[in-house]
Amino acid sequence: MGAYLLRRLLLIVPTLVGIMLVNFTLTQFVPGGPIEQIVARVQGEGDVFRNIAGGGDAGQGGGGEKYAGAQGLPPEFVAELEREFGFDKPPVQRFLTMLGNYLRFDFGQSWFRSISVVDLVVEKMPVSITLGLWSTLLAYLISIPLGIRKAVRDGTAFDTWTSSAVIIGYAIPGFLFAVLLMVLFAGGSYWKIFPLRGLTSDDFDTLSTMGKIRDYLWHITLPVIAATISSFATLTLLTKNSFLDEINKQYVMTARAKGLTERRVLYGHVFRNAMLIVIAGFPAMFLGVFFGSSILIETIFSLDGLGRLGFEAAVQRDYPVIFGTLYVFGLLGLLVGILSDLMYVLVDPRIDFEKRAG
């Protein structure tokens, strides 16, 4: 296992460099870079893209030399912008400089917020941790017992109507379900039980410890439910199918023939094998919800998290935020892939990745 882990760790570096290189190269061809954004603001233009006459991007990824719409502005002003953002250097030099800084975890400052990228991400992280952690835990707490029950009662009326409910839940987009929850329970047209926006109340700091916990849970209930709906459906069906696959195997029939109780057979023999793929996938699922939380759900509930941060950075062409978060999230994603493999071995020690690689 040690040699396998070493190979996976060594592969992180070229993989991460490849991810950064592809995205950096793509930005060379994306119009509407940060300089165009600033030029448009200076000139009072509302639409940046009206000022781009088929020109390239001179952002951290852009390489255009002229900026349509900059007529009337002093050339020294535009040249100073290029020097300030580092666009007076060749793209290769900018890319190598960026990688060198990122290896030291120096991500610089946001170009449009006057705050370091690290501080900006830390500021938005509580929302994403809330959605990611609670949504993942809620999905597992509901889906595993429900999936096991459906597998045991496969083909019954219970299995039929719960499958219908699961399929409906999977088919409903998270943002649409969020709107439905707001209409029903946040004062839209029926009951005003939960707050409309925010992660905490305005008087949160004045509350007692228990009051803060209640206020926090009160605010996160609707967005967490909205973020859980699709993953809950997928995980339920995955759990059911895993158990059905194991229940029909020879060792289960042998255990029953020995006189073991159904509960002992189910949880003493089937559970570990059936839950292998479900439990081992926990890190990847959490990371997916954590970093991929819906921008629409965050917007609907007025939550300022990493989803909105990524969207706003892309719109503003805030390349330090875009590339900095891409580097960190890519690194975490690769590490979580290794962690998932370790979870497989932990759940079932019979798995040997070194033999498979050989």
TrEMBL record:
This is Microcin ABC transporter permease. It is a multi-pass membrane protein. It comes from the Bacteria. Belongs to the binding-protein-dependent transport system permease family. One of its GO terms (biological process) is microcin transport. The chain crosses the membrane at residues 9-26, 127-146, 167-191, 216-239, 274-301, 321-347. InterPro entries: MetI-like, MetI-like_sf. Keywords: Cell inner membrane, Cell membrane, Membrane, Transmembrane, Transmembrane helix, Transport. It is found in: Cell inner membrane; Cell membrane. Coiled coil: none annotated. Residues 125-344 form the ABC transmembrane type-1 domain. SUPFAM superfamilies: MetI-like. It holds the Pfam family BPD_transp_1. Its main location: membrane. PANTHER family: INNER MEMBRANE ABC TRANSPORTER, INNER MEMBRANE ABC TRANSPORTER PERMEASE PROTEIN YEJB. It comes from Paracoccus contaminans. GO terms for cellular component: plasma membrane. PROSITE patterns: ABC_TM1 (PS50928).
